[in-house]
């Protein structure tokens, strides 16, 4: 054989050997690959991890042996990736999913685009990226998943059998990205893709049920985002189809049943229909029944069934359900091997059920187990795992729950630590971050409630705001986050007392209620929270609408909650508390009955082991005690003691609420002791509350044991030391301590005690954070303590500092932001007497100018507030125009609200509108206060809108004497301010509170019983013999002559003696003391005195004081010495003074209403108008008069004409409204002309008003210093001078007075050619002179005494 031939043979031989080796290698590779694939299929069938390990070993060898060009290498790489993917899902090791992605990526790279396996490799590659995203949370993974799966879809033609699967997988990745980013485009894309997958799959296809199930899951997700019932209905329908299309023996049937149960559970959570939760349990039970014991998915089905049983328990409250839930979840934990990635989640779920059972039974073993299980869940989960934040959050929730029961600070600190970690481990875009922030905020609230650290409540609000801002508006949890944030603001309000917080709380909670459907299970909670906030604002502002709204919201919460619901007792308890608050304010006994009924139901629905049962029993006991105190039925106080005993017995010794329950039980024993006198009760009270002060003080008061008061002071001092200085309750604690020192001083007389009382009362009064009412009471107590020290230690001379403090608190106490009627109530309850006492002290200290200033600050407070809102800002405008404009704008907004008419509409929308207006008003008040602070910081404006000093007030006395009258205790004083700005002081030793009360009673009786004086008005009716009784019908007919809604006829016998008393005791001494000053004011006419009485003196007719006898020569009265006027305050005389010269003849609007619809006839008004017109016609420079009689005098017509007429004469009925003076009105032809309406008009031309109606200057006896009558209201509306009436006037007399009055004014105007201002006070004096001179009998006084002049 030649060499070439031999060489060629050798080559061929080697080639054959290589081919044999390649064939052998191929066989090995194929064998390894097939073994690996078989092992993988075996694992998928029986779940044995050993099979999976074998699959990875064989496939890994096949991959390693196969060269890159090997045609099957991509397949082996893909299967190797699938095996690592599968082991990752089973064992949770991140290295497996990393390898899966690596192998699948190589498979994709080695497969060209036209290869039929390329779409499958891309799809699998995408699925692995999706799984790694679910574990690690890197957004690049889910983006890569979608990119790969999109290519898989694009490379597959529509008819390809795998295209539906690729569409389904791509849809699942869009689902996953939506859950992370919340972009609606993703979920919509997911649903569209999965719908395509179904549409491309025929009915009989084995994968159609899977696609239906997966599409249903996307609708689940969309429902969770939008909350639209249609979405969860679609989800259930699709999953039901998946179940129905799958035979019982199919391995996926349990999966579809489990998923169907999950959707039914979700719909129950939303709608609360019991059929849904029952069906969910049924579906999940079937899933478990079809799943053998060793199946890897059985623990998941057990867990989900346990969750459903727990949910049904939360609704029905049946212990069998929560016990079943715990049993099922425990089985799930036991069936899950230790290394399984789902084990931590199952630990956490089991812990949640133990926590739920603790909430019901209160057994500590459950909450301890919950914490242990959740701690295991945290420990078993690596930091990078996406579920770690959830487990940390749940762990923190359980510590928070245990803290609420035991009060151990370590628990709440651990709760915050765990929840903080949960937040830190959760990226900003994660959908669960808002929930974790919200829960962390709640734990900060709990710690704040315990420690009172403001930093905690600030953190809570900040965290809950973050939760809210991260939550889309259409997200179902948004309402609950709104409500929770509202609760945080309410808690800060309770601590700091800032009204803005409770306003914000109500606003947020109202939004939560509005956004939550009645069918939503969270609606009752939102309503209850709103009710609590309304109750808190009621406690602050006293506005009855708030407590009514609280009760309405809490009643709705109760009605929307079924009896078995675990939250129903809490809602009932809250409702009962609100009824009790309203009882305290209004005193309606039906409220305490309703409170007891609500609180009894709350207690009955709560088992003995429940941690809240003691609170419900305690509250029910308090209500029974309150009812006993009002009705005196012994059964109530016995029940109160029994219920409070149960509360004490059910509360463990270390619980933070136990001292409170002991205190309340002691109070009930003390109450029964006072009623029955049984010493056992008072001893029991002390035994129960040994470490508390209330019972000690009670027993000291009853038995006088000094050890009791000493121990009480000790505990009160400790309480004061513990509470932060800026806490709003500190002032109240100081008051309690001061009262105890005050009490001990009265017993022992030691100066140290009274000094300590003075010191703590001063500290309380000067607090900057305490409620104004508490500080005001402290100032009064401070004054009282100083007075007591002065009485016992004559060398001690108290200063005026406490009185200064008290006076300065008035603007805060009678707050401009409070409703008008509440301000009047505060003045009535608190302010009046305190002002008079302070003025009296200043007078005794010879600080007369200061006394005048204080009197002014305590008079016409509400009118003064309105006057301030209209103050000109000329100086501020010149110096700081921007500030002036801002201040003027906010002043105007406040004024509009001040004088608005309250709506009678009680609809929900009207109520909401009024609430919004009230909140806007209070925001404006706060803005005004901020602007005032800014303005007063400017040079020259330090005293801007502060109370005027005497140097300004004294200008009210130019051309006249102003007499200020005050009475306090047994001291009655007059301060006469002279034109020279000096003050003359007179003290009336023969006048006391008792004497004034007698005179006032005499005055009231005189003007309310004048039937015998009406006979001459109706001779045809009253000329019957005296012994014939007047019929009731005739009496009622006779009353038609009075111009008011409350008419009367009286016996005037006491009137002359009343006027004589006033003359002798007060008025004549003033005349004698100021005789020279009066003479100096005389200029061819009588001098002018303006009376400004206060307190009960406000209702006495000083202008008519005198001795009236039948002989004119024997008479003497103030009218002989001076012309009299009245003023509600000195500033009322200074505001809008008359210009020095008139611009011409006056323009007069005259309104007469002889026959007002719905009112009693006033025929005299027609005569009155005729007389005035005739007098005007006689004047050659007659004024312009526009007369609107009867039907022409509509509200709109009068309002329009008021803008152009400076004078107005109203002859009609007048009505005063208490306590809302803005609704006081004049009755016109088509309705009421209210003060509110008058004040809304520009009154630049307003000069003079004659109110020829009844009782237009009478006022409210409960708030005498406020001058709450139509006459003062007209001054406040802009009129400079007003004639009014102190009580009903006679229809026959009114025309006569008006005729003479206007004749005098017109004549004065004619003489000066209307260049000098006419003087209504003198015209009225002259008009009444004729009637005074004709008063030959006592009854004749009633003709003219009612007429009075107010103003300049």
Describe this structure in words.
This protein is elongated. The model is unreliable at 684-693, 901-906, 1009-1052 and 1137-1142 (pLDDT under 50). It has a six-stranded mixed β-sheet, sandwiched between helices. It has a five-stranded mixed β-sheet with strand order 3-2-1-4-7, sandwiched between helices. Strands 11-12-13 form a three-stranded antiparallel β-sheet. The protein starts with a helix and ends with a strand. Helix content is 64%, strand content 6%. It contains 57 helices and 16 strands. It is mainly α and 1352 residues long.
Radius of gyration: 44 Å
- Biggest β-sheet, characterized? 6 strands, mixed
Low-confidence stretches: 684-693, 901-906, 1009-1052, 1137-1142
Number of helical regions: 57
With strands numbered from the N-terminus, the spatial order across the biggest sheet is: 9-8-10-14-15-16
Count all strands and give the number: 16
Mean pLDDT comes to: 82
Strand percentage, roughly?
5-15%
Structural class: mainly alpha
List keywords for this structure.
1352 residues, mainly alpha, five-stranded mixed beta sheet, 16 strands, elongated
Question: Would you summarize the structure shown here?
Answer:
By secondary structure, this protein is mainly α.
